[in-house]
Amino acid sequence: MEPIRAVGAMSGTSLDGVDAAEIWTDGETIARFGASSYRAYSETERSVIRAALGRWPGEPTVAEAAEVVETAHARLLAPYAQADLVGFHGQTLAHDPDARRTHQAGDGGVLAQVLGRPVVWDFRTADVALGGQGAPLAPAFHHACARWIGAQAPLAFLNLGGVGNLTWVDPAKTDMAEDRALLAFDTGPANAPINDLCMDWLGQPFDRDGALALEGEVHPGLVAELLRHPYFYKMPPKSLDRDAFRTAGAAIDALPPSHAAATWVAVIAASVRHGLTQMPQPPDRLLVTGGGRLNPAILDALTAALPCPVRPVEDVGLDGDMLEAQAFAYLAVRVRRGLPTSFPDTTGVSAQVGGGQVSLPDGMVDRLSTVARQDPRRRVRHAQQDR
Ligand SMILES: Nc1ncnc2c1ncn2[C@@H]1O[C@H](COP(=O)(O)OP(=O)(O)OP(=O)(O)O)[C@@H](O)[C@H]1O
Ligand SMILES: CC(=O)N[C@H]1[C@@H]2OC[C@@H](O2)[C@@H](O)[C@@H]1O[C@H](C)C(=O)O
After folding, report:
1. How far is residue 252's CA from residue 244's CA, in Å, rounded to a whole number?
2. Count of domains observed in the chain
3. Could you give a GO molecular-function term held by this entry (predicted)?
């Protein structure tokens, strides 16, 4: 199948803004990467979104937040007029997979009308409805990235956002739906506790370039104690809330700020090291993406703690700022082709599932969907048909 030119957009948990990035793909192989851009939320926009965090559709302030998200995306995505398809993640406001619900603000139907192009959105609902965690969804894209960089041996991607998550990929298994082609799970805390202590002590949103942590000393006893948390004994796939270690980490937060930052950095490295022991086979390298890769204290600690080389994804020609936006462009194409987007080994879902609604602008004929219906590989339950 000819590659589709798709643009993906992601509004992450740090609420800084929206990333957009284009790729050409058939939903299996990456043909090439395209342009990318970023639009920061204004303080006013951010406060509207923040007011709606933890709320569900129909509750106060959610409609206002959705409008902010839709408007920001419409502005950022308008210049991508050549893209044939849009993958729109939206902004997660609430996520409760145990109650089988998740909520990303922003209506893809509205965006389809405004942009005049098909929009794939609501990527997580089908997965949680089938008992999955609804996250992470990027692993399918990591599998494609591993093949794009020509990896021969199993490797791992580590995303360092608010929490850390690892994807183990066996590139020899070219069909990602194959058993043991992928394994993904959250490793433990990442930037969130460091950001919180920087805000509390310094009035800064994060520890720029690891300056605070690099001044401090690690408290090894508290690292060992945190690593005894029951989460580390659970088998993957497994996932975490942003603040899951707030109580367990109170003793670390009580240290002087530089020691606390250094100790959290050591916790990040120790939890990733532990995560590697839960993988089917040791990866030959760890490729780091997400904002935490820009913190030298974290990269140094990972390098010292891990048995394999640790490198930012830029080393293999990928873009660590745009990987998530690219992932939702890629996933949009998979949804349009009826291919699965999550698997029992990535989200714990009971069966592989293609999650995502497709919204078309008025009057557009659904050519791609016809192709998907004829595709013999279309063997997954699809969210669109279940509605
Ligand atoms: N120069 C830097 N030095 C240290 N840390 C940094 C730097 N740049 C970014 N970060 C960290 O990365 C975080 C942002 O990471 P990222 O953009 O991956 O988050 P996100 O996409 O919003 O999160 P998630 O992936 O959890 O949705 C910041 O909050 C900060 O902690
Ligand atoms: C529910 C939700 O929005 N989860 C996000 C969040 O941000 C990072 C991490 O937590 C990851 O699990 C996920 O996003 C990425 C893009 C994912 O699904 O792979």
Report:
1. 14
2. 2
3. kinase activity
- State the ligand closest to the CA atom of 87: 2
The CATH number of residue 57's host domain is: 3.30.420.40
The last residue of a domain, from among 257, 290, 316: 316
| 340 cis-preceded (ω within 30 degrees of 0) | no
Sign of CA dihedral 87, 92, 93, 97: positive
Residue 72: pLDDT band (50, 70, 90) is: very high
Task: Give me ligand 1 centre to Cα 204, in Å.
Answer: 13
List ligand 2's pocket residues with C-beta within 6 A.
12-13, 92, 95, 102, 134-138, 161, 165, 324
Ligand 2 centre to CA of 161 (Å) is 9
Q: Which residue has the tokens 């949680």?
A: 128
pLDDT of residue 270: 98
Report pLDDT for 367. Answer: 60
Ligand 2 centre and the CA of 9: distance in Å?
A: 13
Atom from ligand 1 closest to the CA of residue 289? 18
61 and 180 belong to one structural domain? no
If asked whether residues 224 and 302 sit together in one domain, one would say yes
Ligand closest to 124 (CA) is 2
Cis peptide before 136 (omega within 30 of 0): yes
- What does the pLDDT read at residue 164? 94
Tokens of 293: 């890769």
Q: Are 285 and 158 in a shared domain?
A: yes
Instruction: Provide, rounded to the nearest whole percent, the portion of the chain with pLDDT above 90.
Output: 87
Residue 124 is classified by DSSP as S
Q: Helix H segments across the chain? A: 43-52, 62-77, 108-115, 125-129, 139-148, 191-202, 211-215, 220-226, 250-253, 257-277, 296-305, 323-336, 344-347, 367-374, 383-386
Is 376 in contact with 211 (CB distance < 8 Å)? no
Question: Kindly report the CA angle at 233 between 137 and 142, in degrees rounded to 5?
Answer: 20
Distance CA 244, CA 247 (A): 8
Cα(191) to centroid(ligand 1), Å? 7
